[in-house]
Amino acid sequence: MKSFEIARLFEQMADALELQGGNPFRVRAYRRAAQNLETLSEDVEVLARAGRLEEIPGIGADLAGKIDEYLRTGHIAEIETSCRRVPRGVMEMLAVPGIGPKTARQLYEREGVTSVAQLERLAAAGKLRGRHGIQARTEQNIVRGVQLLRRGQARMQLGRALPLGRDLVRALEDVRGVKTVMLAGSLRRMKETVGDIDVLAASSEPAAIIKAFTGLRQVAEVLERGTTKAAIRHREGIQVDLRVVDPESMGAALAYFTGSKQHNIRLREMAVKRGLKISEYGVFRGRGSQRIAGASEEEVYAAVGLPWIPPELRENTGEIEAAQARRLPALVTLDDVRGDLHCHTDATDGHHSIEALVAAAASRGYAYVAVTDHSRATRVAGGLDIDELRAHVGRIRAVARRHPRIAVLAGSECDILPDGRLDYPDEVLAELDLVIASVHTRFKQPKREMTRRICTALANPHVHILGHPTGRLLGERDPYALDLDEVLRAAKRHGKALEINAYPDRLDLCDTHARRARDLGVLLALGTDTHMLDHLGYMELGVATARRGWVGASQIVNTWPLEKLRSWRQPAG
DNA sequence: GCCGTTTTCGGCCCGACTGTTTTCAGTCG
Q1: pLDDT confidence of residue A484
Q2: Residue A497 contacts residue A491 (beta carbons within 8 Å)
């Protein structure tokens, strides 16, 4: 992914400039450009060839030139020069919580500190105190910050953070004087991973709730405790920030605290142009303190002439412009989903029977559910050979007869072999109601081979859905090399759906890929990859990913009524 | 370095907490 490589270089440039005391607005320009490159849904190389780089927000003539230079030569001369002026170790010091550019620069220039390890040694030995406003307390914080960094400031998966956040919300809702408690931040925006959990409470008695919060049994350590704000480290390791506001400011605070930062900056800029000021306390006219809005988010957006924008879209990737034009997409909701199309049972590596799965799906109110166990090539998962599959299908049909209120589709998650053939012959696939084709082997194939392998599978008339299309595992395995645009075009051509696999480790397609699929008009399918009954609940993560990709219900096959789904699976002629 | 319904130059979001300082700079979100 070239755009990620360039984004990383721009981030490095911003760090280097900051450490050299460069123009802070120039620093910000690099960071903004980096962020927009990371969330790009189109291929940066394609944009460059078409001379459309300057259409990316935050990219002007200069940065477009630098992107071109990188794509041509593999490096950017000016950035390399600038980064060489500061030792790598000094750049790394910025990752220590509490160490910013000013401190890092002082430590480097005045004390000759050039690495995180050296910084830790000096702080632990008490050799920094009495210099540049550092005392014993700051030394302690540095040592602790370095340890925190070492333990891995790895971000937590959405699927893990969400229950932790909801548990805290429940605990705080019982505190006396609390009106409302809500999750905010990247968790409310449903990003695939979060760095911390943000909780916002409306209360006229902030002291009581701060006290209750810092005393919760979930707290491992109190990091910060003010009058309206506190921060703790959760027993599960993640940091939790609580902010308490007056109920009349709840909307403004929610907007502010939900972010993203870039989205907020855009809102505030729009406010300034209208002679208004937006803060977490409300919307104010002029420099006076006349509050004109703030109790609800709708009011805040209305103050700058916008309709309310769903949190999942608030990344400053076009949602402000869409809102201005009154063209915000109608996003899919959990209620739109009529069935789960990717479920395993104990016939392979699932932990429950067909019967239990169907009963659980029915109790969720689904109109249909697909049983899609592994095919024979996935030996580690106990994949079924042809005879076993036929027997399995027989059992599925028998269970289905006992559950007339829910349609049970007998399917398979069938391996795509390295040459693009499916793991079962066509005549066997033809006996199934639904076929998900997935790659589970030979991840390291070169890009062209992998792309051809998947496009060949999509051309098979018995295949309906491409399972977890890029194979990535969050924090564990990179996506396989793949020309996604070519796969999307193949799916479009053959009328096939790409899965948004809702399993928390996968979320594959991811949000930006889902958005690309949306833009190209490719069908999508939500599946939880359920292996235990609780996993059916992951559907909300898949829905969230689709929403972050601007996807509406009509493009997702399992929001369709059963009849429409059936006719899509068996195209006429 | 970007950007334009006041601007092609002169702006560029806003506030809390900490640790140190006696009124604020640095960091963070």
Answers
A1: 94
A2: yes
A206-238 pLDDT, tens digit per residue, is 889 999 999 999 998 888 888 899 999 888 888
Chain-centre distance of CA A433, in angstroms? 32
Q: What is the pLDDT of residues A307-335, one digit of tens each?
A: 999 999 999 888 999 999 999 999 999 99
Question: Could you tell me the distance in Å between the CA of residue A135 and the C1' of nucleotide B23?
Answer: 19
> Between β-strands A368-374 and A339-340, what pairing exists: parallel, antiparallel or unpaired?
parallel
To the nearest 10°, report the CA torsion of A165, A170, A176, A177.
Answer: 60
Residue-wise DSSP of A142-162: HHHHHHHHHTT-PPEEHHHHH
What long-range pairs does A69-74 form, CB within 8 A, spacing at least 24? A70/A2, A70/A5, A70/A6, A70/A9, A71/A2, A71/A44, A71/A45
Distance A8 CA to B24 C1' (A): 34
User: In this structure, what token pair is assigned to residue A275?
Assistant: 């002679």
Smallest CA–C1' separation from A100: which nucleotide? B27
Protein residue closest to B14, using CA and C1': A279
**Tens-digit pLDDT profile for residues A79-111:** 999 988 888 888 888 888 788 888 888 888 888
Residue A368 CA neighbour count, 13 Å, CB half: 25
Q: Is the pTM of this model over 0.90?
A: no
